[in-house]
Design a protein that fits this description.
The complex is a heterodimer of chains A (about 450) and B (about 170).
Chain A lengths: L1 E4 L4 E9 L9 E8 L2 E9 L6 H4 L5 H9 L6 H16 L5 H32 L4 H7 L1 H22 L8 E2 L2 E2 L5 H6 L1 H19 L13 E4 L10 E4 L4 E2 L8 E4 L8 E4 L10 H8 L5 H10 L2 H6 L4 H22 L15 E9 L2 E9 L5 E7 L1 H20 L4 H14 L4 H4 L6 E4 L1
Parallel strand pairs in A: 3-15
Antiparallel strand pairs in A: 1-2, 2-3, 2-15, 3-4, 5-6, 7-8, 8-9, 10-11, 12-13, 13-14
Chain B lengths: L4 E6 L9 H7 L3 H4 L2 E7 L3 H5 L7 E7 L7 E5 H13 L14 H12 L5 E7 L11 H23 L7
Parallel strand pairs in B: 1-2, 1-3, 3-5
Antiparallel strand pairs in B: 4-5
The chains are: A alpha+beta (about 450), B alpha/beta (about 170).
């Protein structure tokens, strides 16, 4: 805390800063400055180097792009493959086998299981349980950490069965799959998923019992919504205030823009309505009707749907509910699986714009590619969820400031870090992230 | 059933001296290759260690920054756990090479916490000079590859002598 004095007035300014945020994916920082009780600066800094993927894919073919964009993230490579492949198939008029479509949902289930279990138990739960890391938490909660590791492994193994390896899978192709599993391969993994489902149900109860810091705001929520399924790789882009768009039409309502000092683009709605929130909390609120019955039951038992909507700290509950969904749907898909009669359908390239949005673990992920006459990429735009959530994070920092000013400085800073971790930000995906420093003046 | 010793080879083959472990594995004598299970892991993940039966020894191979280039460095895995805990007690942490992965010492520390004992086995490292993408092995490290391979072979032989290897 610093105090500058004049004969007329004493200025009270506080600065809360975290130069390197921990328990997030990638490199970012936080700065919050409050002067006389008013927030004068709330910044999430992203200093991780730009990744240049949008330029790297120029001149490449669609199938090359699918494998390249998976490398954007080691946590959510499937999301990048799904947004890309669905965009190309939409442009080329490809209709894949229904079983291939089910396998893509199964692949997404694997990603959500490994990503959500990683975030809940190793990145976020230590905040609620009073530990500085998952490692120190393991000493006191060994069975919990062991179960969490098994669950994460179950998700990664599902990706390996379908995609050849536990991260950066390589079998997704325009038109379907270059390789599909035998029925027996998936059946062998069913027991691990049953165990994960039971643990996910217990996880919902566990995290719903965590003490939630006070926090209230009315966010604008955005996610995919589908009439017949919980949104993974299909559905319409909807918002809590009436947006309703094709998954190809993100740019009809939103745009990216550059912010000085950040290596990640921000995003905003072009109607001037300001920031919006993506991710598990948005999905559970906007598309909760399509949750698997077991997930819906788990959510109802918490009685926390409204809290999930208004308190970002409660996103950990939404994430746990989605763990239940992903495990339960994965089991259902495996039970109904038969090898696709045509795993890879023939297709022909055509020039035009390939665009699609799917639901990454952290929220809506939009891709747009301009394909030329030779079938190669002329221009690419990739809009990750963390990029879009940056403005919401900064807006929530302003709200959170009012809740932490009476706390000791270190505790206040930790609370602000915890709030940022509630978003499960993936800075490496966005490579446009924020540096949190809190100053009170 | 033939017992095999797991060798976890860390590193990125495209990043200069980070490829040293992979290159050294290629130099292992063929009779030894039949007695080991080489697992290329990039970064050592906790799940690799948790998959090992308790008390089953392994060898972890990686390039190391901070040593003289080409210097071969062999330590029990338990010693690295001890280093992690000593740093933690001093309010510090092992230097991060990536925000996406735990440092090797912390992975071993976590395994020790979950197992109530440090992982059994040895770490075999080699000092590196350059880890830039697209660069070859430095001359110092290339020259020391036979020594690195010999150190790996010696540790495998020691494990075999104690007949603690993992059943195949």
């Amino acid at each position: 805390m610093s105090r500058g004095t004049t004969p007329e007035k004493v200025v009270d300014e506080r600065v809360y800063e975290v130069h390197e945020l921990t328990r997030v994916e990638g490199e970012g920082s936080l700065r919050l400055r409050v002067r006389d009780g008013e927030v004068v600066e709330a910044r999430l800094g992203i200093f991780e180097a730009p990744r240049y993927f949008e330029q790297l894919v120029v001149g490449r073919t669609p199938d090359e792009v699918i494998d390249m964009v998976a490398r954007i993230c080691g946590i959510c490579p499937v999301a990048y493959q799904m947004s890309a492949v669905h965009g190309f198939e939409d442009l080329f008029g490809v209709r894949i086998d229904p079983q291939s479509r089910a396998l893509r949902r199964l692949l997404y289930c694997g990603e959500w299981i490994e990503s959500h279990s990683l975030h809940i138990f190793f990145l976020h739960a230590p905040d609620f349980l009073g530990y500085d890391s998952g490692i120190t938490m393991a000493a006191d909660h060994r069975p919990l950490v062991e179960q969490a590791l098994k669950m994460k492994k179950a998700g990664n193994h599902l990706i390996k069965i379908l995609g050849g390896r536990p991260i950066h899978p390589v079998s997704v192709r325009v038109g379907g799959w270059s390789h599909v599993p035998r029925v027996s391969e998936l059946k062998e993994h069913r027991a691990a998923l049953e165990e994960s489902l039971a643990f996910a149900q217990e996880t919902v109860k566990l995290v719903a019992g965590f003490p939630m810091p006070a926090f209230a705001r009315e966010p604008r929520l955005v996610s995919l919504r589908h009439a017949g399924e919980y949104p993974f790789n299909d559905g319409r882009i909807v918002s809590s205030d009436g947006v309703d768009l094709s998954p190809t039409a993100w740019r009809d309502a939103f745009e990216e823009f550059q912010v000085e000092g950040s290596n990640a683009l921000h995003a905003r709605s072009i109607d001037g309505k300001g920031v919006y929130l993506l991710g598990p909390a948005a999905r559970v609120v906007l598309a909760g009707e399509q949750l698997h019955p077991l997930a819906k039951e788990a959510l109802a038992a918490t009685g926390m749907t409204e809290l999930i909507r208004t308190n970002i700290y409660a996103s950990i509950v939404a994430r746990a509910v989605e763990l239940v969904h992903a495990c339960a749907e994965a089991i259902d898909i495996i039970d109904a699986y038969r090898v696709p009669s045509e795993p890879l359908v023939a297709w022909q390239s055509r020039p035009g714009v390939a665009a699609w949005a799917t639901e990454a673990p952290r929220g809506l992920l939009f891709h747009r590619y301009e394909v030329d006459q030779s079938g190669r990429i002329r221009h690419a735009q990739i809009v990750p969820p963390t990029s879009q959530n940056q403005a919401a994070i900064e807006a929530d920092l302003v709200v959170a400031a009012g809740q932490v000013l009476d706390l000791p400085h270190a505790e206040a800073t930790l609370r602000l870090e915890q709030m940022i971790r509630s978003y499960d930000p993936c800075i490496s995906c966005a490579t446009h992230f924020l540096d949190l420093r809190v100053e009170e003046a | 059933m033939t017992p095999r010793v797991p060798i976890f080879v860390c590193g990125e083959p495209a990043r200069g001296d980070d490829a040293a472990g992979f290159a050294a594995i290629d130099l292992l004598p063929s009779d030894l290759r039949d007695r080991v299970e080489v697992v290329p892991v990039g970064q050592l993940d906790i799940l690799f260690l948790m998959d090992l039966p308790a008390d089953s020894p392994c060898v972890v191979v990686d390039a190391v920054a901070g040593l003289r280039p080409g210097e071969v460095w062999v330590r029990p895995l338990a010693a690295l756990v001890g280093r992690s805990r000593a740093l933690q007690a001093a309010g510090r942490a092992p230097e991060l090479r990536s925000s996406h992965e735990l440092p090797l010492e912390q992975v071993l520390d976590l395994a020790a916490t979950l197992r109530d004992a440090p992982p059994a086995g040895m770490f075999v490292g080699i000092g590196g000079a350059c880890f830039d993408v697209g660069t070859p092995l430095s001359a110092s490290v290339a020259a020391a590859l036979p020594a690195l391979a010999a150190a790996i072979a010696a540790e495998v032989a020691a494990i075999k002598d104690t007949e603690q290897a993992v059943p195949r």
